[in-house]
């Protein structure tokens, strides 16, 4: 992964100097990459950031022992993943209880998140054919929030519209019953918990990879150089001449 950092830096420098498209040999390119010094502890923090944010508890534990990275309470990862799994499984009530056990302020200070969790509860009731219970829940729990927020009201109306279609999956609101809706809500909860624990809500590594791709695309217009096309292996391919 140090290669990613090196490529990004070199791409920026070469793009700034280039006035016309030129060919950069592998030897020249690798020399420039080797001139960039990346601290091992910075790379370790980058890896740990990814493991913690994405919830890979066992991998984070092993990596912490092998790398000597600063102590992190991995119990918080387990608890956070339990919440995420509950939402993804449709057990929203259980997820809300777990969030409150972790930190009641998360939902108390985030009305949008709480509404989306309640909306997901309504979706699950409709999914399970509990029509009367769904209507009662919508009226008692969600309608008052919709009166206070126009955006919430529109989302509520769209959710209740699920009851109006016989073929829900092919209806204009069928996407609400798709697994992607659960994943969206789970991701929102996950981000809120991370923020409450003073962690970044998104891992840094994917952003760096996107930056690498962007930088290479910019440089392609000005130079032929050994570029990375396979991000999994980070193999340099010789420039086309």
Describe this structure in words.
The chain is mostly helical and 241 residues long. It folds into three domains: 1-38 and 204-241, no CATH class; 39-72; 75-196, no CATH class. It is built from twelve helices and four strands, in the order αβαααααααααααβββ. The chain has helices at 2-17, 26-35, 40-54, 57-67, 75-88, 92-102, 105-108, 111-127, 131-148, 150-160, 179-196, 204-220, and strands spanning 22-23, 223-224, 227-230, 235-237. It has a two-stranded parallel ribbon. Helix 5 (75-88) packs antiparallel against helix 6, helix 5 (75-88) packs antiparallel against helix 11 (179-196) and helix 8 runs antiparallel to helix 9. The chain starts with a helix and ends with a strand. Residues 76-133 form the CTLH domain. This is Transcription factor interactor and regulator LisH family.
Helicity, as a percent range: 55-70%
Largest sheet: 2 strands, parallel
Proportion in β-strands: under 5%
Radius of gyration: 24 Å
Protein name: Transcription factor interactor and regulator LisH family
InterPro entries: CRA_dom, CTLH/CRA, CTLH_C, LisH, Ubq-SigPath_Reg
GO cellular component, one term: nucleus
Domain CTLH: 76-133
In short:
The protein has twelve helices and four strands.
